[in-house]
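Practice problem: predict the structure.
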Amino acid sequence: MGEMGDIILQTRALTKEFKGFTAVNQVDLTVRRGTIHALIGPNGAGKTTCFNLLTKFVVPTSGTIAFNGQDITRERPAQIARRGIIRSFQISAVFPHLTPLENVRLGLQRRLGISYHFWKSARVLSSLNARARELLAQVGLADLADQHTVNLPYGRKRALEIATTLAMEPALMLLDEPTQGMGHEDVHRVAALIKRVSAGRTVLMVEHNMSVVSNIADTITVLQRGAVLAEGPYSEVSKNPQVMQAYMGCAESHLQGMH
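Answer:
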């Protein structure tokens, strides 16, 4: 089961039309277990719509989605989440006035199905503290566990969101623009963090930052105007003339500069 060749998620001819506009066009996507798979492409390429289709926040016009070999095309968002497809920065946008410890503990409560029982005894909740602290340590936040989240720097809030997502024990982690809006140092820190926590997990990410993608993604799917333009490892995709053309100008030299 755990070998690299094992397919965890597969879409066939996945298509989404909005009033005559095709946002996602016949997309075949194959994500292998235990890999980091990046979805990239110019603005408006359909990356976010693709994510919304996978988590069922948007219903496909046509095509199929299979997870672990089972057709999940018609399932609802809650069913998808129960299967372990967890989208970070959607479920886990953090609560600013709780501590990082309390935020991660909420993720653990959700998974155990005791989410909204805020009247649960302190004993039950404190039993989750050790695991919560362990997850915070994994993302480098052990020393900030009891601070107010609102006071954390932006990059650290993102690390906390990843810890909260990990608390849900995802089979497939969907990361939506994890380094967006970050300074150089934070980008490197968060990219290294994703690489570290992805060991033994499967990650599908939408990411703009080419240096992040080139350093951590095993497979890259390039979307353009809602369709797959190219797919493969970075070394291959970055040399593809169509990909260079799609990125044009500055991004093109950026692609070439990454070799």
